């Protein structure tokens, strides 16, 4: 049966080859990126340098793009003045040129048409594509209101499209970085300290004496500044404690590796709280000054002894006690790292609450070596009319669930795009920019149904990623090396500004997001919101408001200013936290009022059946999600993911190193492609591990296609966090198939 939106393979159409407007292929690759961290480059006189900040991940390191006399990008290096990178980019940032030079890039706008009865794409001019989208968006607005359009976004282009969508009148702006990533952590910390730990995180790793990592796999998670600070802390003798079912890179640098049984972290955290309180080694002075609900907490954890936690976590009581004492000995220069990707088991707000509570008991927030108070420079908005007030909020899409979701929840927007119970869907159209929903949001069938139900689906991307094949209109954005974007205004230890400007002209028919959003805005009658010809006007105006200018930033790339406030609690002063009462909430009235546990409670999670293993996933230092799998520079460093499997388990199955096998999950879903076996003692026997972002099934990604397994397709069981809608994705179990299951790849 024909679906409404057939998946279209973009390159099968032979498009784009004719469209090279900006003088294609005149670049050369950047430096070889074999080193873990590339140093700042030399200043060859014949190379021109342009300031940028990296878009290969969301750490946004500032750097310099070097352009040679032929107008090719020679290399990218870190900006020495940038505290986010200190002049050193990670392998991905160094290899970022590969995003620009990728021959598979989207090159021209594409529109879905029917040709000889088949759905296909045709090349379109920008005018045609934008007029079509604006026409559809006007229709949707007239029929069901602007609120029925939604935006999915991640990365810099999101700012420009968020502005457009707010001007248009919708509150439904959703990013996978909330419900699939840091949302549970942010909500857990907000419920405890009144604010989140931000990005880049306010963890004072550089000066810490003890760093506790719960899953956070810094070193594989290559967030630059944190990796550098962790190395510095190790050099300075800091104690690292890593809790991970896998011997991560961080675990291998740790004094204590606690190979916890996956999904039981909350039991460990509660017993750590028990030890701190009942051995009386918590920071009594800090707690009495700054926290509320201590007596309730003490009573709550009375029975959560290490002996109670032992059979749950498989961690020995003496290890639990010893590690709690290490933390106490280092306090307040101790960090129980809040983590970042926190959507694990569906009780993730409560797990991060327990992490926040531990930090509070140790007195870490507001003390050197713990968590500091950030300071930043606020960039004023370029003048525009007020945004219209939407008739309803994104909370409506949650159907009474997730009361503490303070951002739109991707999975709720997806669900609300499907007509159900004879009712029309609330959401009728999507713009998707900078996010490959097919790889980043689980529950593929639901996503598919939603995409089939939409009246309009626009995708803005740089690459023919899977999501583009579902679009009515595909808009090619130029890469970060070819465009201006918003000023990066980081609030951290020091306030900094960073500029991204084009190093070269956009290749082919590609355009920057600010231009696309503005041109759509004009066609929607929202020109007043885009009252400039060129984005440089906006940037110069904004920079002048904060005592700089575009000219200055073009020269220096990064501007640091000194703080007005102290990053730590000053001796003799009393700090007020950002909660309603000004005090840290060990007992959360807010959660209680919303019908949730006021203090974290451990609940067991389902375990694998016999013959199945828990599928866990994470990062590799040289890749970012699904976005780098086609980057030739980075593929050279790691072409595919492998299945980490304990040798004892492998022996049971008769697996040899390097053998390819297929994975089948608890719901019978089989991986599209096989994966290579990696035998390693570095993982518990009850789990297997893969790096996220591989297993692309879209042939136009000529380098990424068919390499490795995509974890997302195997995540068919999602444990929703009732507090904020996070999609717990680690409750999926796989077994192994050694013969080709003969499944046809989808495309
Ligand atoms: N199964 C599973 N799911 C996960 C995760 C996981 O580990 N496993 N991780 C979760 C986490 S932590 C996060 S933050 C999310 C991340 O989710 P996403 O941000 O969706 O990650 P990517 O898959 O890298 O998709 C990025 C998309 O942006 C495009 N892109 C790159 N540069 C640009 C640009 O300059 N402009 C535009 N317009 N597009 C660009 C890429 O081509 C790609 O299509 O995924 C979450 N989902
Ligand atoms: N190179 C690289 N770096 C990145 C990214 C990238 O794509 N590439 N993405 C960035 C983004 S957006 C994010 S959100 C972060 C994510 O990175 P982090 O927040 O550091 O880590 P997580 O994804 O939470 O967890 C991954 C680790 O958790 C372990 N784990 C699995 N199950 C359990 C469990 O039940 N308990 C415990 N204690 N551990 C468990 C895994 O073995 C793995 O080591 O990485 C960031 N850094
Ligand atoms: S950490 Fe690496 S990929 Fe991320 S912004 Fe920095 S250099 Fe780019
Ligand atoms: Mo993330």
Overall 3D shape: globular
How far apart, in Å, are the first and last alpha carbons? 16 Å
Q: Identify the strand order in the major beta sheet.
A: 5-4-15-14-13-6-7
Which structural class best describes the helix and strand composition?
A: alpha/beta
Instruction: Describe the largest sheet.
Output: 7 strands, mixed
| Architecture (CATH level 2) name of the largest domain | 3-Layer(aba) Sandwich
Mean pLDDT: 94
In the CATH hierarchy, the third-tier topology of the largest domain is known as Rossmann fold
Bin the strand percentage: 15-25%
Q: What count of domains describes the coordinates?
A: 4
Q: Radius of gyration, Cα only, in angstroms?
A: 25 Å
For the record, the CATH class of the largest domain is Alpha Beta
Bound molecules: ligand MGD, iron/sulfur cluster, molybdenum atom
The count of helical stretches stands at 22
Range of helix content: 25-40%
Q: Which parts are unreliable, with pLDDT below 50 for 5 consecutive residues or more?
A: 14-41
Q: How many β-strands, per DSSP?
A: 27
Description:
- The structure is a single chain.
- The protein is α/β, with parallel strands linked by helices.
- It folds into four domains: 31-101, Single Sheet (N-terminal domain of TfIIb); 110-174 and 380-485 and 496-560, Rossmann fold, CATH 3.40.50; 198-373 and 570-593, 3-Layer(aba) Sandwich (Dimethylsulfoxide Reductase, domain 2); 613-744, Barwin-like endoglucanases (Beta Barrel).
- It is built from 22 helices and 27 strands.
- Helix 3 (126-144) packs across helix 17 (513-523), helix 5 packs across helix 13 (348-362) and helix 8 runs antiparallel to helix 11.
- The longest helix is centred in the first third of the chain and has 19 residues, at 126-144.
- It binds ligand MGD (2 copies), iron/sulfur cluster and molybdenum atom (MO).
- One ligand MGD binds at residues 57-58, 181, 214-217, 221-223, 243-246, 248, 260, 262-263, 265, 339-341, 616, 618-621, 623-625, 689, 730.
């Amino acid at each position: 049966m024909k679906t409404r939106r057939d998946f279209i393979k973009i390159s099968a159409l032979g498009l784009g080859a004719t469209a090279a407007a900006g003088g294609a292929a005149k670049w050369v690759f950047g430096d070889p990126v074999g080193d873990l961290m590339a140093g700042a480059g030399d200043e060859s006189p014949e190379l021109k340098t342009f300031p940028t900040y990296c878009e290969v991940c969301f750490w946004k390191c500032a750097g310099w793009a070097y352009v040679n006399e032929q107008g090719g990008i020679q290399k990218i290096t870190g900006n020495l003045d940038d505290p986010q990178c200190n002049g050193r980019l990670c392998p991905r940032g160094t290899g970022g040129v590969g995003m620009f030079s990728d021959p598979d890039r989207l090159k021209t706008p594409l529109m879905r048409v029917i040709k000889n009865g088949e759905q296909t794409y045709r090349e379109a001019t920008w005018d045609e594509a934008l007029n079509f989208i604006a026409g559809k968006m006007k229709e949707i607005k007239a029929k069901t209101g602007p609120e029925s359009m939604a935006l999915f976004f991640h990365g810099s282009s999101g700012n420009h499209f968020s502005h457009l969508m707010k001007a248009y009148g919708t509150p439904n702006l959703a990013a996978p970085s909330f419900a699939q990533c840091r949302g549970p952590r942010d909500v857990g910390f907000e419920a405890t300290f009144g604010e989140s730990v931000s990005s880049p995180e306010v963890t004072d790793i550089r000066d810490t004496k003890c760093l506790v990592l719960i899953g956070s796999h810094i070193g594989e998670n290559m967030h630059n500044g944190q990796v550098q600070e962790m190395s510095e802390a190790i050099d300075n003798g800091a104690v690292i404690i890593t809790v991970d079912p896998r011997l991560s890179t961080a675990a291998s640098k740790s004094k204590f590796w606690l190979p916890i049984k996956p999904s039981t972290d909350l039991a460990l955290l509660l017993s750590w709280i028990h030890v701190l309180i009942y051995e009386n080694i918590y920071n009594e002075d800090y707690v009495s000054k700054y926290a509320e609900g201590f007596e309730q907490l003490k009573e709550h954890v009375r029975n959560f002894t290490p002996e109670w936690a032992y059979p749950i976590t498989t961690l020995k009581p003496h290890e639990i006690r010893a590690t709690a004492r290490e933390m106490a000995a280092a306090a307040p220069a101790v960090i129980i790292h809040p983590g970042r990707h926190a959507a694990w088991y569906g009780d993730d707000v409560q797990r991060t609450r327990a992490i926040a509570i531990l930090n509070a008991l140790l007195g870490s927030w507001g003390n050197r070596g713990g968590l500091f108070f950030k300071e930043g420079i606020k960039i004023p908005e370029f003048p525009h009319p007020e945004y219209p007030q939407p008739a309803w909020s994104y909370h409506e899409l949650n159907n009474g669930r997730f009361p503490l979701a303070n951002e739109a929840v991707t999975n709720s927007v997806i669900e609300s795009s499907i007509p159900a119970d004879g009712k029309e869907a609330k959401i009728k159209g999507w713009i998707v920019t900078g996010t490959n929903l097919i790889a980043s949001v689980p529950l593929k069938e639901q996503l598919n149904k939603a995409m089939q139900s939409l009246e309009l689906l626009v995708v803005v991307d740089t690459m023919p990623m899977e999501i583009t094949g579902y679009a009515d209109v595909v808009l090619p954005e130029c890469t970060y090396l070819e465009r201006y974007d918003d000023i990066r205004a980081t609030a951290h230890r020091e306030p900094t500004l960073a500029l991204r400007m084009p190093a070269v002209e956009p290749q082919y028919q590609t355009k920057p997001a600010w231009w696309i959003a503005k041109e759509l805005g004009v066609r929607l009658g929202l020109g007043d919101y885009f009252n400039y010809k060129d984005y440089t006007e906006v940037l110069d105006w904004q920079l002048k408001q904060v005592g700089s200018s575009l000219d200055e930033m073009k020269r220096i790339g990064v501007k640091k200013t000194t703080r007005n406030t102290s990053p730590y609690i000053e001796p003799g002063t009393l700090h007020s936290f950002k909660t309603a009462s000004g005090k840290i909430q060990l007992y959360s009235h807010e959660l209680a009022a919303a019908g949730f546990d006021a203090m974290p409670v451990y609940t067991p999670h389902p375990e694998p059946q016999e013959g199945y293993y828990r599928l866990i996933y994470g990062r590799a230092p040289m890749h970012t999600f699904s976005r780098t799998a086609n980057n030739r520079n980075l593929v050279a460093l790691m072409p595919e993911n492998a299945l980490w499997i304990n040798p004892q388990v492998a022996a049971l199955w008769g697996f040899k190193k390097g053998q390819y096998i297929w994975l089948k999950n608890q719901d019978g879903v089989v991986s599209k492609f096989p994966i290579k076996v990696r035998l390693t003692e570095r993982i518990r026997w009850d789990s297997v591990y893969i790096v996220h972002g591989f297993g692309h099934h879209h042939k136009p990604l000529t380098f990424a296609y068919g390499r490795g397994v995509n974890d997302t397709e195997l995540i068919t069981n999602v444990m929703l966090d009732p507090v904020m809608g996070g999609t717990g994705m680690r409750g999926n179990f796989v077994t192994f198939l050694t013969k080709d299951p003969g499944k046809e790849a989808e495309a």
